[in-house]
Amino acid sequence: MANDLPTTQWVLTLSCIDGPGIVHAISGAIVAAGGNIAESQQFASHDTGRFFMRLQVEAVAQPDTFEGRFEQALAPVTERYHMTWRLDTVGRPVRTLILASTATHCVNDLLYRRRGGQLPIEVPLILSNHETVRDIAEFYDVPFEHRAIAGADDKAAFEARVLAAVDELDIELVVLARYMQILSPGLCEALAGKAINIHHSFLPGFKGANPYKQAHQRGVKLIGATAHFVTTDLDEGPIIEQDTIRVDHSYSVRELTQLGQDVEARVLRHAVRSFAENRVLADGDRTIIF
Amino acid sequence: MANDLPTTQWVLTLSCIDGPGIVHAISGAIVAAGGNIAESQQFASHDTGRFFMRLQVEAVAQPDTFEGRFEQALAPVTERYHMTWRLDTVGRPVRTLILASTATHCVNDLLYRRRGGQLPIEVPLILSNHETVRDIAEFYDVPFEHRAIAGADDKAAFEARVLAAVDELDIELVVLARYMQILSPGLCEALAGKAINIHHSFLPGFKGANPYKQAHQRGVKLIGATAHFVTTDLDEGPIIEQDTIRVDHSYSVRELTQLGQDVEARVLRHAVRSFAENRVLADGDRTIIF
Amino acid sequence: MANDLPTTQWVLTLSCIDGPGIVHAISGAIVAAGGNIAESQQFASHDTGRFFMRLQVEAVAQPDTFEGRFEQALAPVTERYHMTWRLDTVGRPVRTLILASTATHCVNDLLYRRRGGQLPIEVPLILSNHETVRDIAEFYDVPFEHRAIAGADDKAAFEARVLAAVDELDIELVVLARYMQILSPGLCEALAGKAINIHHSFLPGFKGANPYKQAHQRGVKLIGATAHFVTTDLDEGPIIEQDTIRVDHSYSVRELTQLGQDVEARVLRHAVRSFAENRVLADGDRTIIF
Amino acid sequence: MANDLPTTQWVLTLSCIDGPGIVHAISGAIVAAGGNIAESQQFASHDTGRFFMRLQVEAVAQPDTFEGRFEQALAPVTERYHMTWRLDTVGRPVRTLILASTATHCVNDLLYRRRGGQLPIEVPLILSNHETVRDIAEFYDVPFEHRAIAGADDKAAFEARVLAAVDELDIELVVLARYMQILSPGLCEALAGKAINIHHSFLPGFKGANPYKQAHQRGVKLIGATAHFVTTDLDEGPIIEQDTIRVDHSYSVRELTQLGQDVEARVLRHAVRSFAENRVLADGDRTIIF
User: Which PANTHER family match (chains A, B, C, D) (predicted)?
Assistant: First the structure.
């Protein structure tokens, strides 16, 4: 900025049907509100005909003023283009509910990085149907709540608690950190676009129980993981992040599982960071990651 | 070696039911035949209870003598352990038949590296149902034969030609370098353990036509390829090599396809090299790669 | 585009000192000239205080008209911001001079992909101080010129020929495809920003002759390659692309060299593609790759 | 094993000057002692003329008996070949002293995986010149000792404490988990072959302070890390493990540093696991990793 006043960083994401003049209109509103574009990415999807944009905007640090002015300047633009948009401050911790089960690797990875300031999330609650992650949660000063799931009633109660927590705690993101229960269609819909799951992935894919055992039996040379949005179509929601790691015939099922957990933790962390930084936009069955 | 006589390098691969004393017996036969173990890898498969070994052996360069002596010394061992084994000279070019269709990337990659001495294969024939790779074959001085496949009869004739070529040309390895026809069960069986195919792989897997288009539509973040032995179970034979490459939402179907071809060529080359160096051993539905 | 007239794709790259209103001004000129932004990336460098942008613009296919209108609309903007800019058509083959020596792997890789339409370059000439790549050049119908370099005079003559060729053939990019001669400071300066070199890279770096031998002796677990702009500071110009590949103690110097060549070819290809697609912008000692 | 008695897994590593008959002699001693080779890798170094081997041996679970018998059977072999060897039980936790400073990422990674049984080490002590890792140590029930280093005397005292701890606690491995002090030559020598350091690596290498800042300024596309044995030649000891991660121009110095820490933790963990599983053998300035 030309002057030396303290500045605030804003992140603006938007999407609308593609057409001429969008960038000009948006940038005009930003200029009118006294902002300066520090970073920008856009993408026009040939599949859906939609236009997507993410901007980081610097403005003199009078947040309310900029936000107000910007909304005023943007109003005719969003109306004209039937635009979906969202303005946020850069680095604001996203309120995140973690669902866990017995496995600790994803929870540990997320909480360790959150504590170190490497992941812009805050975690007002971990809900789990097992006790295994309790001590990690306590070490990282995160509230932990255990609810056993022994049958269908328990599961319904657990899901009701999830929804209540989302509401009471202003949750913006639900992370299924190896939460091994299948969500009901109702919960999937209620959390549409804000629940991220992590699951193992293999080339080729293996269906059914114990995929690492199947991977071992087929002698795969790569194991991987996929982080995706939760939808009612199990493990088939829009993909946010994927990665693989090299293995060979000498790896036991146990070693494959451990390496797989390393990849899972890494992929989930990456996806959560992208979401928390407002980098993930939905484009039908796919995601745009800026 | 202690003396300065010229030496020959041998590669010995073997497998048998696991049990005590195998390595001692094998190494005894090598010592008795005057060889020295330069390199060795072994693996005991818990899945099948079988033992696998690959050795590189150095012997004074009187090949016939060593081979003869070694076979004699090994006879009681192989008999005792019901051993499957194979003795070859290191670096001997493996006689390879390439089956091609319209795509050139795999053929070009294999022939370029063969010419540079980077791939121990010789290619007495390329058979293709299209003309596209003819000029590449000619540039690299490899015989090329075109046989169109317009119907079931053509296909049967093509396959008969494959079998005849395998026989007449002492073919040890058949490489399906993007040969887009499904092999008949009979041909699969006739080529069992010596035909390698390459196909695209994705997380998750996509069935049906135009997988790169499906990959684009689902917004995958990785595309990959798998080289595997041909079996009657289409694209599901024992895996030899796999790799992936990172992509994002901005890649068009055409760009995904091109990058996919880069990975396919790399993975196939790697698999062919492993096979030609006697590093691939079958262990039921999986491979041991030494 | 709203109408169904055939369109042309343009790529606009620009840089200037960062400040408010740039995107708005640029997008205004595009709108005024009747273009639609299909893709856009920008970056504000904190290191140099400069702003960089790359846009792909779609306009009704009357190229001269759009280009003329756009230049007119842009003139006040470029003047106001002291902007460096360049407008090109998407996919136009970049006129590329290749300098070669004995190694064939990079030349082969570039020419194979150019022929397949995977690399938007045209190659009016390969200049080499050895004959090794002649047959590859001929196969791919690329003019080849051999000039031996036996001493300082030959080298000066070779470099004079390079400069003459750049001038006569309207060369936009010079690729040193394992051209093993050190360029004179004068030639480096004459080719500033348009000559790309590829060299091997290791962790840690090795100075002096036969780096693969040194890499072997130190037991590195990764070998790599770096593509960079040529500057007078040998092998230290702005980096365009890098990659590594995994190796282990069992690799001979010869095997390391071959794998190194695979990485070199891949990294150089990637860098050339980025350059030819107008994705590489210089920011002092670094590059912005869009 | 033929019978159903409980078995113990042994790991044998050895090296000697290469020559004929070694494998036969070793395998003979194993057979004589009643063991069965479950896994084996060997390597003959052309650089040093030495032979290296690692075997996993299964024997009926009377450890003392097998160990005693094996030593007896092996004695003439080790004498004949002037062999260096070591027999250990598979999975035995290696007694590890961790040296730390302010950074927590490596310590956290090692202790988390140790607790989950994924890393066969036990950590009787963490010594640090800062307090930062104390709470992590306490959470994982590992003794922590803080000793500030304000000057040369403190440093000498710290190093004396390291040597005393190594002695008192039967330490087999010292891990410098981002311990930012340069070890004295005396300590390097005292810990030769059993101290592992982790440091960042780049292509090209950067000397001096704040390497991530230099990496940013030069616009590197990869950042990496190297785990190596500590020698008096700073950061130049035999390499055990290396890895890299992809970055681009948009990463700030802070983001590069965080990603660099992820790679450091992963590479160090891998190196520690290899060491603890008796997979690392020294071959002059390089390592053999089985």
Answer: FORMYLTETRAHYDROFOLATE DEFORMYLASE, FORMYLTETRAHYDROFOLATE DEFORMYLASE 2, MITOCHONDRIAL
What is the phi/psi pair of residue C48, to 5°? Answer: -110, -5
Cα–Cα distance measured from residue C8 to residue C35, given in angstroms and rounded to the nearest whole number: 10
CA distance C26 to A24: 8
Say yes or no for a CB contact (<8 Å) between A248 and B289: yes
Contacts of C108 in chain B (CB under 8 A): 112
| Helix (H) / strand (E) containing A98 | strand A94-100
CA C149 to chain centre: 25
Determine if residue B34 is left, alpha or beta; phi over 0 gives left, psi from -120 to 50 gives alpha, anything else beta: left
What average pLDDT does the segment A190-213 reach? 86
Q: What does the pLDDT read at residue B2?
A: 46
Give the whole-number percent of chain D exceeding pLDDT 90.
81
Which residues make beta-bridge pairs with B87? Answer: B12
**Chains contacting D with at least 3 CB pairs below 8 Å?**
A, B, C
Task: Give the tens place of pLDDT for each residue, C16-55.
Answer: 999 889 999 999 999 999 999 988 999 999 889 999 999 9
Catalytic pick among A18, A235, A243, A262: A235
Going by C-alpha positions, the residue among D279, D220, D228 that lies closest to residue D244 is D220
pLDDT number for residue A2:
46
Q: Tell me which residue of B230, B210, B222 sits closest to B271, measured CA to CA.
A: B230
Mean pLDDT of A115-144: 97
Q: What are phi and psi of D205, to 5 degrees?
A: -75, 150
Please name every residue paired with A240 in a beta bridge, in sequence order, or none if there are none. none
Query: Where do the domains of chain B lie, and which CATH numbers do they carry?
Result: 7-89 (3.30.70.260), 94-289 (3.40.50.170)
pLDDT of residue A263: 96
- Nearest to D285, CA basis, from C207, C202, C222, C214: C214
D235 catalytically annotated:
yes
pLDDT of residue D202: 82
User: Nearest Cα to C54, choosing from C44, C67, C69, C39?
Assistant: C39
**Terminal C-alpha separation, chain A:** 24
Among residues A197, A210, C116, A183, the alpha carbon closest in space to that of B104 is found at: C116
Among the partner-chain residues C39, C112, C135, the one whose CB lies closest to the CB of B108 is: C112
ipTM value: 0.90
Token representation of residue A188: 């999937």
DSSP three-state, residue B37: strand
CA atoms of B233 and B197, how far apart (whole Å): 12
Supply A76's token pair: 């005719």
* D1, D2, D42: residue with CB nearest B40: D42
Euclidean distance between CA atoms C177 and C159, whole angstroms: 15
CB C200 within 8 A of CB C264: yes
Q: Which candidate from A31, A42, A43 shows the least CB-CB separation from C24?
A: A31
Can you state the percent helix, strand and coil of chain B, rounding each to 5? 35, 30, 35
Question: DSSP H helical segments within chain A, as ranges?
Answer: 22-32, 63-81, 105-115, 134-139, 152-168, 185-190, 211-218, 253-276
8 Å CB contact between B59 and B8 = yes
For D287, name the nearest residue in chain C, comparing CA atoms only. C219
Instruction: Report pLDDT for A49.
Output: 92
Q: By CB neighbour count within 10 A (0-12 exposed, 13-18 middle, 19+ buried), where does C52 fall?
A: buried
Q: Which residues does D contribute to its contact with C (CB < 8 Å)?
A: 43, 45-47, 201-205, 216-222, 224, 226, 235-236, 238-244, 248-250, 252, 283, 285-289
Return the structure tokens found at D7: 């078995």
Ranges of residues in chain B whose predicted pLDDT is under 70: 1-4, 62-64, 203-204
Tokens 């963490």 belong to residue: D126
Phi-psi region of A105 (alpha: psi -120 to 50; beta: other; left: phi over 0): alpha
Give A164-186 pLDDT, tens digit per residue. 999 999 999 999 999 999 999 99
Q: Do residue D20 and residue B42 have CB atoms under 8 angstroms apart?
A: no
